[in-house]
## 1
Amino acid sequence: MSRLKIAAGNWKMNKTFEEGLELAKSLSEKTSANGALMILGTPFIHLKSVCDALKDSDHIKVAAQNCSQEISGAYTGETSVDMIASVGAEYVILGHSERREYFKESDALLASKTDRVLAKGLIPIFCCGEPLSIREAGTHVAHVKAQLEGGLFHLDEDSFSKIVIAYEPIWAIGTGVTASPEQAQEMQKAIRDLLAEKYGKDVAEGTSILYGGSVKPGNAKELFSQPDVDGGLVGGASLKADDFAAIYGSF
Ligand code: PGA
C-alpha cells in the first residue's frame, strides 16, 4: 500500500513574523509538487499569514506546534483547535519531546489533545521517542509502545487511520547525532508492527511514520529510502529554505 510521504518542518520558537513569512514564501518558490507533502509547523503568531501565503500551493500545508485540550474559555495564553482551524492550518504537532519534558505533557493529556484535534477535523502529527538512557538500557521499543498506548490507542480504527506518527529519539534531536538508517528502520518497523497488532495490517500499512532527529540534506535520502520511514519531522534544517527544499527533494 502506498503511504503519504511527508517532509514536516518544526520551526519551534524561531523566526520573527517577517522572517517566517519569508521562509514560507521562499520554500513555495524553491519547490514544486513531487508527490510528497511538505508541512510547515510554525509558531501560532505566523499561522494565518503563512496559510494565506500558501493557499494556492498544492504541496505545502501548515501545522500548529501545539493546542489546548480545552474547547474555549478562561485558559489564559492557550490556543484552541477552533482558532487553529479558523486560519486554515490542517495539522497539529502533538507530544513533541520538548513539550513532554519542559511543559510536563503526560500521555493522558496528549490523549485528550489528540481527541480534540481529531474532533475538529485536523490531523495530529503525534511524536514519540526515547531518551538516551532508555536506548542504552535496550528498552526503547517498550518505551515507545507505552507512549502510543497512553496517547493514541484509545482511538477507534477510523480515528486512528487519520494519525501521522513521528518517531524522534530524543538523543538525536538538535544534537547533530542522527539515528542510523538501520536504527530508524528497525524502530519504525517495530512501531508499524505494534499498529498492526492493535488496528490490523491495513491501518498499519496506511499510516505515515516520520523520523525526526538531526535530519539534514545530506542524510535525508538514505533515511527516507528505508521501507518504514515515510519522511521526516525536521527542526534545525527546516529553518533554512535551501536545506528544507533539498530535504523535500529527497523523496
Ligand atoms: P532537529 O529537531 O531536526 O533539529 O534535530 C527535530 C525535532 O525536534 O522535531
## 2
Amino acid sequence: MRPNDDPPARSGQRARHGPGPEVGPVVVSEEALRERIAELGRDITADYAGRPPLLVGVLKGAFVFMSDLSRAIGLPVQVDFMAVASYGSATRTSGVVRIVKDLDADLAGQHVLVVEDIVDSGLTLNYLQRYLLARRPASLEVCALLVKDGQQRTALDLRYVGFHIPPDFVVGFGLDVDERLRNLPAVHAYDAGDPDV
Ligand code: IMP
Ligand code: MG
C-alpha cells in the first residue's frame, strides 16, 4: 500500500486554519504524550491480563486520548463512548452534568475503564462514576490523561493519571474551547486575551 501522493487541491487554504494567537505555550508536548500513553498502555495491559476491559471514552474531549490509549493496550479491549456536557461554552465548570449520549454496551459483569481527557473540579467524573456503578460492572476504574492540581471539589479515586498540570485552561489533544482547537497535536495553554481591550 502506498500513501496518496496527490497534492491537496488548494493547498493555500491550509494556512487559514492555523491556531491563532490565543494558543499559548505547550503544556504537554507531543513526545511526552506519546511516551506517557505508551506507559499507561503497558500498565493497563499488565493489570488487566486475562480480563480485557471495556474502555468507556467520555466525549468529546477523550476521543484523541482514547484512540492512542486503546492502541497502546495489548489486550482485546472493547470500546464504547458516552457524551456528557458540563461546560456550555464557558471555560469554567457549571457543576451541572447532562448525559448527551448514553452507552450502547451492557455493563453487567464487565471490567469498565473510564477514559477521561481532563479532571478539573472532578464533578463530571464523580457523577459518571455513580451513574456507571449503578449498572453493576464487575469493576470500575478511571484513566484520566490530565488532572488539574488543587482544583478537585470532590474525592476521586483515579487509578491511572497521565499528567498533573497547573490549574489553567488548556486546549488541544481533544480539549476544546467553544468546540475549537481539539485537533492541536499537543496540549497548550489558552490565552483568552484581555476582556477589557
Ligand atoms: P470537571 O467536571 O470540572 O472536572 O470538568 C471536566 C470536563 O470539563 C472535562 O472533561 C473537559 O471536557 C472540561 N474541561 C475542564 N478543564 C478544561 C480545560 O482546561 N480545557 C478544556 N476543557 C476542560
Ligand atoms: Mg471531558
